[in-house]
Design a protein that fits this description.
Length: about 375
Amino acid sequence: MGCRPVLAIDSCHLSGPYKGALLFAIVYDADDGMFPLALGVVGSENYEDWYWFLEKLKGILDGQEVIIILDRHQGILCSVSELFGVENHAYCYRHVKQNFSSFFNRQNIRGKKWKEDALLLLDNIAYARLDIDYNEAFEKLVHFNGDLARWVAENSPKHWAMSKFLKKCWDKMTTNIAESFNAWLREERHQTIYTLLLMHMDKLVAMLDTYMRGTDKWKSMVGPKTKEKLMLNIMRSAPITVMPYLDKCTCLTWQMSGLPCPHVCAVIRTLRHDVYDYIDPCFKVSTQHLIYSGQFQPLPTHNMPKVCEARTLQDGQGNVFPSLQPSQVRRPPGRPRQRRIESQFSHKRAIHYYRCNGIGHNRSKCNNPLP
């Protein structure tokens, strides 16, 4: 298909008349764009439903080995390990960071600055590419707080730390692209299942056509996002006098991401070679054309039931069933939420009061003297 073998899988609740949950798998195209691969409607997020969805997804992949990025839901842990193997399951680092932040709040540590320092140390642990950098960051966290370091050691860093994860994950550590797909279906989630699928197909066809036409506007062998990352690495590179053997880099950035790191870019500049020759083929325009060259298959309608005049259902074999009723879904306690629970790491626009030029308050809470 051409996409990188990294799948971001997530779910969202359906708020239409039939409730349930929508499970979906998203992959990356040649320019880090969102390419929806599969989605399924299930009753709830339990082991049986996750296993059914991942089993169908494995059939679509046709034996190709992939990396699954998911959160640590108990049903997900069991089903992924059985179908894809434990070594191919990467935990979403954004969820890990949220759990770490919640654990920090339960400790007797006061001060916003301390929490920011702890989260920064966790980032250094997660994004360290070399074992020596990982050990150095972990030792700093041990000196900072032993309980926090113990939490990191007990929460399987081999599934979310870049230096400990054994498989190539192309520098993808979160399910943010799946969250983008979740927001993309914001309106469709309130419809019936049939309407949801039809609306999704219309939006999907329009999106694929837009991406395919946008590929013709690429001004180089790679997409705009990839070119921006590559140009940044070239700007960071410095001339060298030693001519090493250009096969791999000891910083592991080139091997993990598929794009030449600043060290490799410096060697390429010294050798006067074309930097695009050292980019992984999955980022090139030919791969993008391959991804969006397939035909869109409509939903099959064979053996679909028909609604009779007596409001009964008749299947393709002529069997008659009573009228279809929505499934019985237990209503959760409390008042239904109207707004989604925002992540504590989401960026919000700061309030700005124009008279005192202060940030974080408005007129009613301003204590600054007016000019």
